[in-house]
Amino acid sequence: MAAFVLEREGAGTAVVLLHGFCQSSAYWAPTADRLAAAGIRSLVPDLPGFGASAGEPGPYTMAGLADWLARLLDARGLARVALVGGSMGGVVAQHFALRYPDRVLRLLLVATGATTAEPAAALEKAAALAGAVWDETTVEPIVRGFFLNPPEEAELARFRSVALAASQHAAVEAARSNASNDTLAQLAAIRVPTLIVQGRYDRARTPEHGARMQACIEGAALAIVEDAGHTPQLEQPDAFHDIAMPFLLGASGREAAVPGNLS
Question: What residue ranges define each of the domains in the chain, with the CATH number in brackets?
Answer without folding.
Answer: 5-252 (3.40.50.1820)
